[in-house]
Fold:
Amino acid sequence: MRVCIVIPAYEPGKELVAYGRQLCAAQLGPVVAVDDGSGAQYAHIFGALRALGCTVLTHPKNRGRGAALKTALEWYALHPNGCDGIVTTDCDGRYTVRDVQRICEAMARCPHSLALGCRNFDRHIPPRSAAGSRAVSAALRALYDIRLSDPQTGLRGIPNALHPGLLTLRGERYEYDLNLLIDAKRQGFAFTAVPIEAICSCSNSHYRVIADSARILLRLCAGLAQYALSSGLSASVDVFIYGVLVKRTLQALPAAPRLFWAAVIARVFSSVVNYACNRRLPYVQEKRIGVTMAKYYCLWLAQLAASFAGAWLLCTRLHLDDLLAKLLIDALLAIASYQAQLRWVFCKKEASGKSAPGRQQKAPGKGASAQQGSGKSAPEPEPEAAQ
Structure:
């Protein structure tokens, strides 16, 4: 498989030249380095890369990793050179050339998935980095149903089929990598995990702990925030209609039928608002109205029954106010509904034998799967490709 190797670089060390030489020698495809505003004092490093035959793209000032990847994608759109996709790697040599080759092999075996180089966090990885990656992994699983052991890896194989839309994807810095994962899940791509022997290299890291972590946190919470707004809007419609019915229109009825019919009528109107809003959330894969509406209203019926039963119990047993009882029950149901819509209502069903979108699968083949299963390190490259 022929790929384009992309290296975003900001104030790189001299090891980038050796790394570029090894990548060129591997003959995997064109090597593109993006000088993300490093300045004149680093011109000799990028000049050496040009002399090796690498393409160097330059930003006048630092714009961030995401912006550098977009610049490379713009260049790649004009110069595909018969490549089947791009492989992104880092400029500090933390990902060996053999690791890059493993990503290429995984792309060849699984051409319709996003290949990710996954580190073994039990070996040579700083505790802070490991803890941060595990936290992001847990958040992605809970909020987007994306199951990855190393979501912050910079070594990624991106097939051509995933490229449309990446130029307009939000994010200029490290949060762009997270947006890419969410967009890939939304489009129905599976993730292929490739065990790698990442070398710890923190000395040249330009990750800004507070600013970049805040950007990532905001992006992680964006889907939940949009869901909360959608739920808040539909809940306002629901509670308003429910209040009018139980306090005025149906006040003469006994408690059980009053609460039941008020809940049904209010839920019918609010469900239309909620369904229309939720079809536009970032985790949505399946947007076909026929498929999703049938699932949505099955969930709606279950929520309706739970809302009525819960409100009736709180009103008759604990003697709570009608509206307060409904608000408490619906708040709990909203959490359950988020997970049900994420994992069932708007989740695209895959054909038999295919990995579900957003799920991590091991790369086929003896080498990768055996290494991950045993926890052993990947063999080092030959001397000419050593880091």
Residues 223-345 form one domain. The chain has eleven helices and eight strands.
